[in-house]
Amino acid sequence: MTNTFFAKLASFLTFFVPRPLMDYYAFRVWRSGLFDRNFYRGVNRGVNPIYRAFPIRHYVRFGENIGWQPNPDFSPEAYKRLNPDLADPKVLPLLHYIRFGKKEGRLIKDISSGPRADDISIADLRSLAALAPKVPSRFAVHAHIYYHELWDDFSRKLVDLDIPFDLFVTITRFGEKTDALRAEILEQFPTATVVFMPNHGRDIFPFVHLVSSGLLSRYEAVCKVHTKKSPHRKDGDIWRDALISGLLRGKDTSAYLDRFLADPMASLWVADGQHYDDPVWWGSNLAVADSLLRRVELVADKDRLSFAAGSMYWLKQELVATMRGLSLTAADFEQEYGQVDGTVAHAFERALGYMAEDGGHRIVQTSQLEEMAPVEIAPRPDYVSAFYLPQFHRVPENDEWWGHGYTEWVAVSAAKPNYDFHHHPQLPGRFGFYDLRQTEVLGEQAELAKEMGIDAFCTYFYWFDGKRILESPIDRLLKCPDLDFPFYLCWANESWRRNWDGLTGEVLLDQGYADGFEEKLANDTAVYMRDPRYQRPDGTRPRFVIYRPEDIPDANASIARLRDAWRTCGVGEVELGAVLFHVEGEHQFDPDLLDFWVEMPPHNLVTPEQYLLGGPADTELDLHPVAGFSGLIYDYRGVVANSNSPAYTDKLPHNTIAGVMPSWDNTARRGASGHIAWGSNPMTFDAWMAQTCTHRLSKSYRSELFVNSWNEWAEKAMLEPSRQYGDAYLRVLAKWSKT
């Protein structure tokens, strides 16, 4: 030990002893601008801190001799090999290139000999989606095979797993030998999905392409591995084996996955030593990573970086879904030239770290799972409701006001972005552009909602002193008694106005309260309350919600008369509630007349501290709004924090149902004057659900949860599957609402 200590000490001292030739070399390297300090420190992470402080000196004295690269593009070993006249050991590769090679146009690294992207067609997303197993396993493993000779190592580890999993293999095709490998894989794993891919986007694009197809969305966790060699690392084979063995744990894999899944805030599991947490690792990837992150409403910070190196990991469902939201295609990835940094694939690796930690989630390493203490299971709601909008069908009034053929879909599909990477239009996924006059659509929606933990739809009921509008879906439902659609009504008692906010602008349909309206309203709603599918969450009373009771001129008297009218018409007692609105109404009333209140984000949750754009003060976040934008952008993550702050919760009525929203953005209705909650994605919604179940449910009315909403597409407040995120928001809800 003493000899080793003195040897290291001598090496350090020698490192600082002047050596004219080496010092001249270091000067030429520094002046050339060809040395990338961040890259060198990042790739060679184990270098002693003293050496890391002087990376150029380390390179010219030690690094070059062992084949370390000074930047992503220059390989000392390849430079001498590709230029045989430089075989003399005395030739210093980078110095020669600086002095002569650059002018002579000499080759500086190996060029990939694999097929280019356009040599092999990329499987289209719909074809891939059709390959999905009808009954998926709990887990999925994706293996990308570039180096065919490494498949045997993978297959041995896969056979040894003690978990049920579906296998997805993507292979870079190199002629007939790849066909033979595919046949071998299918012989070993007959149910595997094997897809040929071009040599494009490294191992990242094949994985992203599967994710974008929706193939991997149904699994509790997904493992991504690949045949990594990393030619720029001398320990590439050892590194690869450590990465894979740290994740595919043989007969212990199930136990590790149980621990991973038990921690609700762990989103990504990586092998030991592969969680890098230092901004020095940005290299030349910061700008590209930032552009990727803005697609899912995140921004990169040059002073913060935490990510999983090596591109092998286990991912939870909500993180896979957020990745899908990037909407990456083959066109986003560069052609393959053997780059070791600075590509979209490298930037994605770092951006994934931000996504994995969004909303307070975290990256865990294998040993951390071993040391994990038991996690207390958060409460689950006893009853889950979601607001339901019946706007998706034609009515004569909308034809007159907005043009022939108008439905909510017209506004949704015509929405345009208000800032860079603003994802519009938001388009429907699984159910398409449905027409709610087709009653089978309601059945399909209800079936999915039930599967994902929703107990009832709170359906908007538009009633203007006896005049009905948008009543067709719910009326047709009554004629289909075999269709399972649990619902109750919310009287949306506000005027319809041209600017859609119910408060200002030209009145299209006025909400009045004529003498005796209570009896008419009770009789009109009693028809639905008598339907066996009409919900009685307390087991006895049908439930009814009034959107804005404070707009009723004499609400105290009207509520009493309304209750009496329901009794008179045979309905009996009604469980009556109202929405907590962000603007006070014209008339005061006794809130104790109501059985409950519904928290409906974003009402009352947006404060000046959350304003990002359009508020009283500018913020450091530059979203690059379009010219003429006059709306308001606020922080979704800040809204989530507010929803659990005592300053907010202490003011809520004691009988309030806790509410959440997957997202909010009414650009489709208000264009450049829209109000937008920036920062929503499946990870941040998961954080809101975790927070609500852990801290709010115990005080929520009857331990219930309310979601705004199922299908408010023009306000981007929808749980329904979309093209961007698939059914991710529903799966997050299911995770926290089902036991």
UniProtKB/TrEMBL annotation:
It holds the Pfam family RgpF. InterPro entries: RgpF (IPR007739), WbsX (IPR032719). It comes from the Bacteria. This is Rhamnan synthesis protein F. It comes from Litoreibacter ascidiaceicola. The lineage of its organism: Bacteria, Pseudomonadati, Pseudomonadota, Alphaproteobacteria, Rhodobacterales.
